[in-house]
Amino acid sequence: MINTNVYSYINVLDxxxxxxxxxxxxxxxxxxxxxxxxxxxxxxxxxEELIRNLNKVEYRTMDAKVYNMRLSRIEPRVYTxxxxxxxxxxxxxxxxxxxxxxxxxxxxxxxxxxxxLTSEFSNLRTAMGNGG
Length: 132
Fold this sequence. Notes:
The chain has four helices and two strands. The chain has helices spanning about 10-30, 45-55, 60-70, 95-125, and strands at about 40-45, 75-80. The protein has one domain (about 5-125). The protein is mostly helical. It has a two-stranded antiparallel sheet.
């Protein structure tokens, strides 16, 4: 993580991209275990924690909120989703169609985050006079 307010948005985007990567791994695990008895799907908690932390910061502008947020306190974490729910007799709660939708959605999110990171670095290069 880079420590300066110039990189505040980059740090948030980087953390979000890490969370999306972790979610991709969790979804891939779910898909791989679709036929494993008693397997429970996993997901990643991140976005809600990010929003909660942004709302804790009592500044009016998003720039000020992002700069003053304690990003080190926000870590994506894998959790078991709907442990008591099962769609099948074998105790597994993975629905392959749903997981494929989540995977596609997450890939779009990850690609968008990477594009935003690329754009932020491009803006920095331009601001430093090294636009090419």
